[in-house]
C-alpha cells in the first residue's frame, strides 16, 4: 500500500516516514497541503496521513478536496494533530477525515489505526471490483435481452420481421397516421405457384427462393418501409406516408424486381395486392382484408400483376395525392 504523508515539520515527517517504512509501506512525503493535493490528483493514493496545520493549504481543506472527487477510488484520510477537543474532532470528521492520530504519535497506536485503514481499503477494493463485475454482467444481460427481443421479432428463414412484430408495427403506424392526418399503404405479396415449385425442386430450393424474394423486397423498398414475412410464401410491405399512386409505383417496382431476378431453376413471379388508408383510418384487420382481396384479384386475373383494393370499385377515380413523392 502506498501512503502519502503531508507534514510540514521535517522532524515529525522523518520519524513517521521511518516508522511506516519499517512496517513495509511505500511512503512519499510532501511538506504542505498544496503539494499533497497535486500528488493525489495525478496519481493513485490509497492512504493519506495529513497534518492539520500546514502552509498554503491546511489539512481540513485538503480533506475536503479529496472528498469532492466522487469518481475517484477512495482515499482513506488520517488527520495527524495535537488537537484533541470535541469540536476539533467534529470539524475533521465533517471535512471527511476517517481517523485521527495524536501528535507526537505512538507507534502502537499507529499500527492499530493502519490496520483499521487496511481493512477498510481492502473492502473498498473488493466493492470496486464487484461493481465492475456487476457493470460487465449488466452489459452482457442487456445485450442478451436485445438479442432475445430481436429474435422474437425475426423470421428465422428470411431474416425479415415476423408476423407478430409486423402486426404490432401496423397497429402503431395506423395510430400515427390518424394522429398526424397522413396516408399509409399496405402491400401483400404472394409468390406465384410456390407449391408446384416446392414439389418440383424440394423444400430446400423453396426455402432458398423465399430468401431471395425476401432480400429482393428488402433491397427494393425504401429505408423507412417495413418488410415482413406474413406467412408461408406471403410477405407484407408497410409504406408509411404513401398514397394510392405511390403504393402502385412501389408495388410494380417490387413485381418487376422479382420477375427479372436471375432464377436458376425456373422463372419466379409474384402477385401483389394493395390497400391504402382513407379518413377515418381503418383498423389493421380491415386494411389487411382489403389488401388480401386485392391480392386475390391479382391471382384470379392470371397472377404476376398488381391490384389496388380501389380497383375492385368500378366507380373509383384516383383522388388527390396527400403524401410526399416516392423516393
From TrEMBL:
Residues 182-311 form the GGDEF domain. Pfam families: GGDEF, Response_reg. It comes from Singulisphaera acidiphila (strain ATCC BAA-1392 / DSM 18658 / VKM B-2454 / MOB10). This is diguanylate cyclase. One of its GO terms (molecular function) is diguanylate cyclase activity. Keywords: Phosphoprotein. One of its GO terms (cellular component) is plasma membrane. Transmembrane segments: none annotated. The modification 4-aspartylphosphate is found at residue 51. GO terms for biological process: cell adhesion involved in single-species biofilm formation; negative regulation of bacterial-type flagellum-dependent cell motility; phosphorelay signal transduction system. Its EC number is 2.7.7.65. It catalyses: 2 GTP = 3',3'-c-di-GMP + 2 diphosphate.
